[in-house]
Design goal:
- GO terms for molecular function: transmembrane signaling receptor activity.
- Keywords: Disulfide bond, Glycoprotein, Membrane, Signal, Transmembrane, Transmembrane helix.
- Pfam families: Ig_3, Ig_C17orf99.
- This is Ig-like domain-containing protein.
- The protein is an alpha+beta fold and 249 residues long.
- The chain folds into 3 domains: 72 residues, Immunoglobulin-like, CATH 2.60.40; 88 residues, Immunoglobulin-like (Sandwich); 70 residues, no CATH class.
- Helix content is 23%, strand content 34%.
- Strands 11, 12, 13, 15, 16 and 17 form a 6-stranded antiparallel sheet that branches. Strands 2, 3, 5, 6 and 7 form a 5-stranded antiparallel sheet that branches.
- It is elongated, with a radius of gyration of 46 Å.
Length: 249
């Protein structure tokens, strides 16, 4: 990156003056003229990947249809790897579970070699990627020793510019108790029973209570005492009204 390069272009034959034009991916970049058959030199600066492409040179003079193109020239961009990103679809894990880790460096000349670590110890052989794709490994969480600090390393042809990712930790997922669903079910059953009992009070218990109180009494002569029944009925009615009124207050 930020590298200066020079491209030389010349024609061995033809009547001068000769005009040379440099193209990149079919687009004109620069043009120079020579009054003789000496080569011209185009100076370029490669700042980014967009400066890399197919370069060609065209030579033309005043003769009609007297222009020729050179063969194409392609630059191979070489740049160090960027800081890789270590990630996983699961941030929590439990014992006996398989988890995956992905490591990707978004910049850098291919191929890129990735190495995975746990607590600074290599856990698998290095993985070389020929494409801009993440290296993925699978890990079986056997015990609490498999929970720790994971990292990955990315490197390419620039051996002295190796990059490491940030650390990644799996957290232990809480396992639900088997008795919890049973407790919830029992609670729902008790709640339904309480609601059913509350609904039964005005329809069954209170009418039964009134029926017993309203039963007419017979005198020793065998006649029913209507006055006593009415008095008793009124007493019960007012007593109940007073009772429920006091509860509502």
């Amino acid at each position: 990156m930020n590298q200066n390069v020079s491209l030389s272009c010349h024609s061995d034959s033809g009547s001068p003056p000769v005009r040379y034009t440099l193209f990149k991916n079919g687009q004109k970049v620069s043009a120079l003229s020579r009054t003789d058959l000496t080569p011209v030199v185009f100076n370029l600066t490669i700042n980014s990947a967009s400066d890399v492409g197919e370069y060609k040179c065209k030579a033309a003079n005043e003769i009609s249809n007297g222009e020729k193109y050179s063969r194409s020239l392609n630059f191979t961009l070489k740049e160090p790897v960027s800081k890789p990103v270590l990630s996983s679809p699961n941030s929590q894990a439990k014992k006996g579970q398989n988890v995956t880790l992905s490591c990707l460096s978004e910049k850098g000349s291919l191929p890129i070699t990735y190495t995975f670590f746990k607590d600074r110890h290599t856990i698998q052989p290095p993985v070389k990627m020929q494409k801009r794709e993440a290296a993925v490994i699978s890990i079986l969480i056997k015990s609490s020793n498999d929970f720790g600090m994971y990292k990955c390393k990315a490197e390419n042809c620039f051996r002295n510019k190796t990059k490491y990712s940030d650390g990644f930790n799996f957290t232990l997922a809480e396992e639900r108790s088997n008795s919890q669903p049973l407790i919830i079910s029992l609670g729902l059953i008790l709640l339904l029973l309480a609601i059913g009992f509350a609904l039964a009070i005005p329809f069954f218990i209170i009418p039964s209570y009134k029926a017993k109180k309203f039963t007419p009494t017979r005198s020793s002569t065998g006649h029913t005492s209507t006055e006593k029944v009415e008095e008793s009925e009124d007493y019960i009615t007012y007593a109940e009204i007073g009772k429920f009124t006091s509860l509502s207050i």
